[in-house]
Amino acid sequence: MIDAYTHLDMGVDDPLAALERRMDEAAVDRAFIVETWNKDNRKCLEQLAASHSSRFRVAFCFRPEDGPFSPAILAPETVGGMRVRTADLRPFRPFAAELARSGIWLIPHCEAGIGVLADELLWLAEACPELRIYLPHLGWPRRYKREDEDWERSMSALSALPHLVAGVSAIAQFSQEAFPHQDVQRAAMRLREIFVPGRLCAGSDYPLFDTTRYADYMKLANEWIGRGVEECSILEFALFENLPRVQ
After folding, report:
1. pLDDT at 243
2. CA–CA separation, 195 vs 198, rounded Å?
3. What are phi and psi of 43, to 5 degrees?
4. If DSSP states are collapsed to H, E and C, what string results for 208-228?
5. Alpha carbon of residue 154 to chain centroid
6. pTM for this structure?
């Protein structure tokens, strides 16, 4: 089983070891660790990127304010993704082709609603058809704890993109109910109808929930996807099966 979206708990002495303990308890073999916007886990991810780890892949954030984008950040095999805010997708457009050539996944962040994000992703996919896109967090079905009226239309449109994979993660963030968050399950079931097998993956969004329930959240996400633990998504296969990258 793979955790396809996690961060690190930077409030503990050894964040990576803490994540590995949770993974071992949950029978999670590998994980895709995403940089946070405040950069608190950046140093850990840079060390992982240089480690040639077989258990982890990392995703860095694109921030135009940090200066010119360097494709060198994509070179290590351990780097599997680039996280980009909706507002920064337009500044990122000149680099989309480089991302596509490298085989790295674009991981968009939805800070302005899924409708706005979907429009940007559809434009990028038309301009760069081979770009791989990983849309986490059920495509953000809610804004401010309310149903996003653009979600159904947006996810249906995005499902037509052959290189887009959606993730079931951050379950608790969208719920107004206690675990097992049946109010959010409806969105997951709709994703199963919209996306073909292999184009959904399960993640935790650790540590942004009760971390003692890490195993519960990973089990729940996989149950909602309706996939056995031995099966994997297109994203998971591409990250961890050493598929050749276009140079």
Report:
1. 44
2. 8
3. -60, -40
4. CCCHHHHHHHHHHHHHHHCCC
5. 17
6. 0.94
State the angle between helix axes of 214-225 and 15-25 in degrees (0 to 180), rounded to the nearest 10: 60
Strands (E), the chain: 2-6, 30-34, 56-61, 79-85, 105-109, 132-135, 142-143, 146-147, 164-168, 200-202
Name the strand (E) or helix (H) holding 156: helix 151-158
Give the span between the Cα atoms of 221 and 168, in whole angstroms: 6
The domain spans of the chain are 2-240
Angle at the Cα of 170 from the Cα atoms of 166 and 173, rounded to 5 degrees:
130
* Confidence grade of residue 244 (pLDDT, cut at 50, 70, 90): very low
The answer to whether 137 touches 143, Cβ cutoff 8 Å, is no
CATH architecture for segment(s) 2-240 = Alpha-Beta Barrel (3.20)
Which two tokens mark 244? 């050749």
